[in-house]
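Archive transcription. Copying these from loose printouts into the bound notebook so they stop getting lost. Printout 1 of 2:
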Amino acid sequence: MELLNASLIDWSRGQFAMTAMYHWLFVPLTLGLGVIMAIMETMYVRTGNEQWKKTAKFWMTIFGINFAIGVATGIIMEFQFGTNWSNYSWFVGDIFGAPLAIEAIVAFFMEATFISIMFFGWKRVSKKVHLAATWLTITGATLSAVWILVANAWMQFPVGMEFNPDTTRNEMVDFWAVALSPVAINKFFHTVLSSWILGAVFVMGIAAWYMLKKRDTQFAQQSMKVATVFGLIASLLTIYTGHGSAVQVAEKQPMKLAVMEGLYEGGTNEGLVLFGIPNPSKKSFNDGEDAFLFPPIKLPGALSLIAFYDTEAYVPGIKDIIDGGYPKPDGTTALSFAEMQSKGKAAIQALADYKKAKKDGDDASAVQYKETLKANFAYFGYGYLDSPEQLVPNLSKTVYWSFHIMVYLGGYFILLFMVMTFFVYRRKDLEQKKWLLWICLWTIPLVYVASQAGWLVAEVGRQPWAIQDVLPLQAAVSAVSTQSVVITFCLFLALFTALLIAEIRIMLNQIKKGPAGSH
């Protein structure tokens, strides 16, 4: 695997990040809105109330607009693994490709089959068959998320594999270890629940707009009733899955946790930052600058408790992870960057020596080199790193702010759902609370900010790794010209921006038409 220049790596990262962020504008709404519209159609089938059918059909129209554009960005993103990250695809294609193949063959075809019945089958099939098609459509979309997140979780926590030095590829040896990885399971639930929150806020905000305009009030009330309870349940469950993510990050990606908290020097009884402003002058883990502009406000012992269920547990900071020597949860002592780098270089050299021995027919030496490779393979990726600074995500302050903004907004959404549920089900005078309706409407962009922030924490926070501890970015990128990546970046940016503008315009036109325009 060839190591390539920093400019190519940065542009390749930028192109993939831009594609993923645009794609992630559409996916959460698909997952959240899909369940909400299915609940509304279920209410129609159970009650026979035609107003529920009218409400469900309106949100199906919005769902369809969003779904179509989301598919386009997702397909382009998958192609980029081959065009921009060919070394990565070669190195782990046997593993990474399997869940993506299942997603395409099973989940995507399931969506494609039943979505046509959902949109065009109202007068062609019975109520119950149509309802089943609606639920199967959103089930297919959710199954797509399952397999994509299994693939992503494997990049964060590679399991169920064995490195084959003859092919220089990682090969899957335990499919169920990959599919049922604890990281994959928690990532799936946390991602889907956060998407449900987005869908609920979206529906609640649009319903609030109709109430402000005093239009289609019965439709707006029905939408609000479903969205508030659905969103409240999803937001409360997200607290649990968010805690699960923190536990797994602390155990498997300690550098990510340290960056999320702006923690440079850790310790026992470590506090959780409630508020603090990172020092922009701090450029390196050992430059002597303070991590924050002023002492951050912390909840004593909370970070240790959240991460390891023990207020006295040791939480390493960025400097600790690089220097090593701290106690790990499994009772072992953490290695320093220099020690891990040495083991990584030993693994890379053993691989080269193994291939040469095999070529020369020296089977005895090949066996010895293979054992050396196996003993050091856990640190294989560190052999490609030149300095300890490379272990720290180069957008560490972005990760810090993304994490805390996500948490702050998550707390705000819970409070808003509680207040809205109270007014919808108890007070009955919501239409008179214009200030509250405006808050609901202007919360729509905030929920997208929270969703994107979560993606930034998950993906930027694990840099420099394409695969945690095994393959850094500079060894994963394709050997293409930087100019070609820049050109395609600009083309994709223009295309995705046009698609986003088109979607917003079509949605706004449909919303202005109202439920009557969905017939």
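Printout 2 of 2:
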Amino acid sequence: MSTDTGSPPGSEAGPQAADKLDSGVLKIAGVVVLGAIMSILDVTVVSVALPTLMKEFDATYATVAWTMTAYTLALAAVIPITGWAADRFGTRRLYLASIVLFVGGSALCTLAWDIGPLIAFRALQGLGGGMLMPLGMTIMTRAAGPERVGRVMAVLGVPMLLGPIGGPILGGWLIEAASWQWIFLINVPIGAVALVSAWIVLPKDDPQPSASFDFVGMLLLSPGLALFLYGVSSIPEEGTVTATKVLVPGLIGLVLVVAFVAHALRKADALIDLSLFKNRNVTIAVVTMTLFSVAFMGAMLLFPSYFLQVRAEGTLKTGLLLAPQGLGAMLTMPIGGRLTDKMGPGKLVLGGIVVIGAAMAVFTQVGAETSYAVLLGSLFVMGMGMGVTMMPIMSAALSTLTDHQIARGSTMMNIVQQTAGSIGTAVMSVIFTNHVLDSQAAGAYSAVMQGKVPVDQVPPELLLQGRTDLAEAFGSTFLIALVLIAACLVPALFLPRNKPAATAGETKAAAVPMH
């Protein structure tokens, strides 16, 4: 059994420790959240800089978009090896190395002299960033123990929800106040604090000899995921699944992933432990997370686009308009985490999905002049639903795993979330684009808003009609997201509805250092 799970300084023993997050665990949580915020913010903070980068490097949108795609693909490619590496080298050492790699990539991005080097440095960032979240989940779950995994997931859920909201706000402000380099340079001081804090706070590693590295599995799964996600991420640009740029890498990636599954089923120590699916809670949680990530992550893309395109708001104001969603989540997450530990995730997740669906229903009726009070109120309610949905699903998967399985389990859940989220983003983009193409007026208005066509070349009445049609396109796409969210209720019905069981030995293994 892996034993790099020392007790955090100041951790308490006995029933009291099982009832609350003590000071030692909270210190570890602070370190982990700091690293997670860096990684997740960087996925979205660059999105607002794309027009600036196009001008700076005299590049097309398709080329500049690779600064985001390269990061995401590197993120997905490195996640599979994280579980093995954590067992082999220890979570603390690997976490420190990940921060160094991420911060180093950030510093290099500020020195980029052309778009090509910037894309390469973003990939380097992704290699470090990809390990931070699954490692953070492993460290936190081991430190807190199975009895407190719900509250741990609530803590980790904050950066996961605030990233898509805070990224555009931070990116827009840094570009307006300073320059595009600062969206990367800001990671250097934050990373330095995270590195020193992790060195001081995280328990020392005591890794034991682990299974040999599954090189065949790595050669199948990592490039398989990267190629599949590349194909999926190309769908919005190509506008069809049958395009060569989509179909070829997508199918090759899918074949490699299927080959990995066949390989892993025959190998005792595969890169991803598929025997985890023998655990009923893990299987149900994976299915629920897949459906939920496709639906909600896809919809998350549409919220800022509506404010930017239909309401003609600036980037910074758009980010601020999305803030109620994060505030709602921050309000309910601590409550959701505590209730998950006391009563299990099943009832909470069902309630959360219903709340999210009710708020999403408002957006299916969105128009060009819908009241901001209604929209912001709906976003706040949606955030409240998120606070008792995503991380309790994670808790359902991890709460019944043994100490040795936690690293592999958290790695698998991160792969599922990353892949499903990418699919959801692509699906919603294509559905929305097709709705826009159905209306000549909406297409003309969209082209004007994106700066492709001068406003004086489009008749005013066509612009007015186009704005209305574009709002309707958003509403129709939100309807698809609502249907997918409703579908999440089916697997969620089978999530555990009682307090996670943990033996005294398991609790002790997670809370007491073993040397």
